[in-house]
Design a protein that fits this description.
66 residues; mainly alpha; 3 helices
Length: 66
């Protein structure tokens, strides 16, 4: 069960990370009136961060830990 634990929250972590990036981009767009560029940039940054976190959990490390 300990090996499955980190996998159980992957979907929520992915959605929250993308949501935070999108919300930050939306807020910056409204502040600087650059619509839709910062929204798209925030969404892309959120997606990249979500995939990095996803692969850190899913892919085994090369040093044998976890």
């Amino acid at each position: 069960m300990r090996k499955v634990g980190p996998l159980l929250s992957l979907g929520l972590n992915f959605a929250v990370t993308v949501g935070i990036g999108t919300a930050a981009g939306y807020w910056l767009d409204r502040r600087f009136k650059t619509s839709p560029w910062l929204l798209l940039g925030g969404m892309a940054l959120g997606l990249v961060a979500a995939f990095v976190g996803f692969f850190k959990v899913v892919m085994p490390s090369k040093d044998g830990k976890s």
